[in-house]
Specification:
It is a single chain. The chain is of the alpha/beta class. The protein is 37% helix and 17% strand. It is built from 21 helices and 19 strands. The longest helix has 21 residues.
Length: 558
Amino acid sequence: MNPSDHQEALTYQVFTLMDLLQSYGVQEIVISPGSRSTPLALAAELHPDIHTHIHPDERSAGFFALGLAKLEHTPVGLICTSGTAAANYLPAIAEADLSHIPLVALTADRPHELRDVGAPQAINQQNMYRNYVRYYTELPIADVHESHPNLLETKVMQCVQYLKGAEMGPVHINVPIREPLMPDMTRTDYFFRSEKGMQQYSIVPDGDIHLEGHGIVLIGETVESLDCITPILDRENLTVIADPRQHIRRDMTGVITHQDLIFNSMDADQFDRLEREADFIVRIGEPLTSKATNKFLARTGIPQYVISEHQALKTFPVAPKEAYVGTISAIMKSIRFTSAGRGPKEWLTALDGRISRRIEKYISDYDDEGRFMYEIMRHTPAQRALFLSNSMPIRDGERYDLENTQRIYANRGANGIDGVVSTALGMAVKTPLTLVIGDIALYHDMNGLIMSKLEDIDINIIVFNNNGGGIFSFLPQNDNQEHFERLFGTPLDLDFKHAAALYNFNYMHTDKVEDITDGLMNRKGRNIIEIKTDRVANAASHQDLRRQIEDVVKSVEI
């Protein structure tokens, strides 16, 4: 192939690849600079209907793309060069897999003659995310063979099947590229396809589903909005429990949100009563955040049914009696619920209300992270989304949210602290957002802050700095104080005013709950608010409030 043929073939391949992906809905791409990926990056940059974001750190870039896709589950592309750059996408792709987020990883690679021969920046990239992607392919080296156009269209058509629907998740296209790397940038005539739109499927299992008696419906995070099934759920024989990430709790009345405190505090007689009064349990969507609720589900003998919108069925914490995969609203409309006698709804919903009132009455006695979380939620407007980091903020959010007005998000696929800052910043491109995070998690993804500066993204970041891993103070590891601080507490002695200065954030710190006001929570621009707390005192006050809630729960008559 002469040089002009190579450039023409390369230009056709990468420009057509980008145009095809755009036509199937990939209209945002996060690019990390590199040499081998030059033609891919230029194709994305030149496409008139693709918006690009430039992120210099591939590890954070993966999570930033995840955040862009997370709000509406729209597919987002990633472009990086060859070698370990591609390996840095792995944590974000693992999270995208478990959270059903449609990412398209486009990794440039060395051509075959430079693999396994000691050439620089060449690692084995073939199917390198094999445990976490729905689809993988490697494109051939660009050439002028007549089969090339058909193959390109086929590969993209196969790949985009996983960008929506019951098998939605990340995909990987590896692109080996031979030098010279510059495409013909005048050939924008290859960008001509209009948006095709993806087919929407509604899947409903065959046969009649009949659930008789009183049921407990536990709803985790879902891609589908469940507002339309509120009339189905709002029945006297259904007790509805919602995870903090399930937004139906914002509008539906009578939804139980203190399930973690309830199941943590119930005694054996109360569990027996629940076993007697509930005839079935329906679990909808992703597993719930609450460990106590999952423990209850693992040990109860009440028959359980799982409704999943994804083929990758998540049975945790226990395999159900039956599982139904498909469109949640369609499945729920196909179920016949019939009631019989008195059930647990009345006392469970009354108990949920009493817990709220107890927290409301005594919360002013505390100044721990729970109290701060209570004030943050109270002063954050409904239109502002909250992104709650693992591990303590999401748990405190569940425990101390008495308002149930904000849309709450978290990375609960793999439950890690990787990439939390970048995910939140990706989401903040689309919606006003406040991130609540701990000092270890913020340190873990500090590089991600750069995107706020580069793309002028407004965000409020509230960091609880308790000088270490606060979650471990609530775990059995805390009983072994000889090794606790070195292995689990891990104090870092960080002062985040320096990070704020480095990335041009406004900065303030406080240890006073009175400083958490409407004005502070609604600040414009880029803000880091550091709240310094004490891990030991925080754990003690959390346990104190928990004991108060136990008194409330155990006062329920059997």
